[in-house]
Amino acid sequence: MKKTLLISSLLLGLSNTALAADITRYGGGSFPIAAAVEVDGIVYESGKVPEPKDVNAEKFSAAYWGDTEAQTISVMERIKDSLESKGMGITDIVKMTAFLVGDPALEGKMDFEGFMRGYTRYFGEAAKQPNLPARSTVQIAGLVRPGMLVEIEVIAVRPKAK
Hints:
The protein is of the alpha+beta class. The chain has four helices and six strands; from the N terminus they run αβββααβαββ. Helix content is 29%, strand content 24%.
């Protein structure tokens, strides 16, 4: 009986600890997901997709969205802006997952080189950003809008106050 009571007390204490986590949900607008969720200083950014490169081009065309490099830069700027609105920056990113759609101009293969040209504008040079994230890059069948080639999600850790 005492063992059962002790185990029950421990489990209740653990569940109260989980419930006591500091959780902040950042708005997602009218879409039914959070733009980001922060748990005890760890920010989970929902996947970001590019803004149109040329709104005057044919909707959803390659000219409308831009190539993989342009889309990667657009997405990284959206991530940067989102993190900065939370008092953070790209230096705080610890994990990144990049989803690339096969480029029709490359016979359906992902444009990894184009992605890397955009990515290295933010990471890869010690003078720009020495804090490299762990990263996975995968090719997927498609994204939410025709012509989109890039979606990136990140996890960032809020620096401790000094």
